[in-house]
Amino acid sequence: MNEKRMERFLEEFRLANEYVLDPCRFTPESFEPYNSLVTLITLEIEFYGFERDGDTVWTQLTELKNRRELLQEAEGGRRAWEIWGKQMPTYGEIGEFRMTYTNPEFRPLLVPYLCEQQKSVKGNIIVIAGGGYVMRCNAYEGFNIAEYYREQGFNSYVLQRRITPYHPVNAHLDLQRAVRYLRANAASLGIAGTDRVAAIGFSGGGHTIYGAVMDHYGTLLPDRFDSSYQPDDTDRENSDLQAALYIYGTGGSIHGTENRNIPPAFMVTGSLDEYHADTDSVARYMELKEAGVDAELHIYSGQHHGFGLGDGNCDSMRSEPRSIPGVETWPSQSVAFLERTL
After folding, report:
1. For 127-143, what is the mean pLDDT?
2. Cβ(303)–Cβ(327) under 8 Å?
3. Among the residues of the chain, which ranges form H helices?
């Protein structure tokens, strides 16, 4: 792709990075076609690079622009919730934004999927899509997941965390803040059951939960990681999770943490996971068991990384979407786990 086309691509993709994070803002009829094409282009670029077929990328980009122009604002102007106040702690150096899937002005968000009857809500669950710390696979591991748990009686929220060029610790801080934001603002937001908060993370989203459990829990304050940050009232809320669901991504060993409230864990992986989530999950299960923490582990034989809900809608670019017999049972098993745990 020549330099002129590249600049036009970056301009269009910068808009996409902004719009796809906040589906509340648009009508579903206009958002879903746009979001699906953004996801496709993002994955193709991540897997194959810009030079795989410049003409194909350019054709897709033209279609992306056309779909963007058809986006319609939803009635009522409902928006996602920014979780940080006037300040936002930042750990480590921030790299170059030019070729990333986020923008310099990005502020972490919670996209709410609330139950109609708050008096009977079973609890709250924060959803963190995968994509390592590079992407946010919201189409297959985010928005659809939140909708599923809302249908099961849980208030659900998709966390739009900081990713590259930010250091991963910033995503962990975002999850800690998300828990505190829900608890500090429960009354004004009209949400119940914030004493029962779980988090579910896919791949890199699971690693984000692990980082929060290890180093960003309870009453620990963000200024431990950014001395220039001034904690506010929201930071005084307890950020402990009551349950953690790790879907093909559990992070490292729990040894070394001073957290005395490690939450019960539900883990899912395939036996052929390309990123070793299978062996990592077994190791985490054994550590949790030895520590006396309630844990549940499901390993699906012959399955690879990134199967999402197991319904055929996944983020793999290697084959056509297809249903995965057996794997589609884990969501209902996770609901039983949450109902028992929260």
Report:
1. 95
2. yes
3. 3-19, 28-48, 54-68, 138-141, 143-151, 169-184, 186-189, 204-215, 277-290, 330-341
CB-CB neighbours of 254 under 10 Å: 20
Domain match, 192 and 285 both:
yes
328 with 298, same domain: the answer is yes
The span from the CA of 64 to the CA of 42, in Å, is: 12
Tokens at residue 62, please?
């033209």
pTM over 0.90: yes
Q: Residue 127 is part of a domain; what is its CATH number?
A: 3.40.50.1820
Domain of 66, in residue numbers: 1-79
Mean pLDDT of the chain: 93
- pLDDT tens, residue by residue, 21-41: 999 999 999 999 999 999 888
Distance CA 328, CA 41 (A): 26
Burial of residue 107, with CB atoms counted within 10 A of its CB: 0-12 exposed, 13-18 middle, 19 or more buried: middle
